[in-house]
Design a protein that fits this description.
Bound molecules: uracil
Helix content: 10-25%
CATH class of the largest domain: Alpha Beta
Number of helices: 7
Shape: elongated
Distance between the termini: 21 Å
Number of strands: 13
């Protein structure tokens, strides 16, 4: 593919803008500056560098973010900045969006992609992808609350009870809850329905993919082939 088209497809602006970047010696491959915007470049395994930052060539952009509190998962946020602001501009320009939503005050694992099929696969209720949350509760947890969460609770505006597939008391005020649906404020509403209250909420895992331990709040990284295996999707 022509170098300027590669840059354009990766969110670096119009073809004209990408051509200018290349001609201004801002683009390198394997340590060598490439000045010809029309050079044909093999895209398989390609990593190109723009202004010193590496970009893997990828048909779709999919990343995992450690979401900090104080960010909304909407493209048009109302009260707080969007999580998308934590990503570099070329990624945002590709039209990436979060897979499912976390509340503004929820922290932890959030996937962001421009791959519509992946988004659908992971957010579709039919696939029942487990989501693991660590909730800090206001009141001490007791066995009755755990049993109730596992047996199912009826939330306002729902016809069917929603059940937790796992509910583990870590200590008096910490609950690890696994859900397979993604209803609005589901953890907070379920915990409230059993007579407690969520004071803080963190998503630890999606499918078998845990939040990478070395990813600080606000940091992101590309999803790897191994991550897709852990998510149970083929790519
Ligand atoms: N459940 C909630 O209540 N909030 C979230 O952010 C995610 C799940």
């Amino acid at each position: 593919m022509q170098l300027e088209r590669i840059l354009q497809s990766h969110g670096f602006g119009t073809r004209k803008a990408c051509r200018a970047m290349i001609r201004h010696q801002r683009v390198a491959i394997a340590g060598t500056i490439h000045e010809d915007p029309f050079a044909e470049i093999a895209t398989d395994g390609l990593v190109f560098t723009v202004d010193g930052s590496d970009w893997p060539y990828c048909e779709f952009a999919s990343v995992v973010l450690n979401k900090p509190a104080g960010y909304e998962c909407s493209r048009k946020p109302q009260h707080h900045p969007s999580v998308l602001e934590l990503l570099p501009l070329p990624l945002r320009e590709r039209g990436v969006q979060p897979i499912g939503r976390l509340d503004e005050d929820t922290t932890g694992l959030l996937l962001i992609t421009d791959d519509g099929q992946l988004n659908h696969q992971l957010s579709s209720g039919k696939r029942k992808v487990p989501k693991v949350y660590l909730a800090t509760t206001k009141h001490p947890l007791d066995q009755e609350q755990l049993d109730h969460l596992l047996a199912g609770v009826l939330l306002a505006d729902e016809i069917e009870p929603v059940v937790a597939v796992a509910a583990e008391k870590i200590d008096d005020h910490h609950l690890r809850l696994t859900l397979t649906e993604g209803k609005y404020h589901q953890v907070k509403r379920m915990v409230a329905a059993v007579g407690n209250r969520v004071e803080a909420l963190h998503r630890e895992a999606l499918g078998e993919l845990s939040l990478p331990a070395d990813l600080q709040p606000g940091q992101w990284r590309w999803l790897t082939p191994a991550d897709f295996v852990l998510l149970g999707v083929t790519r």
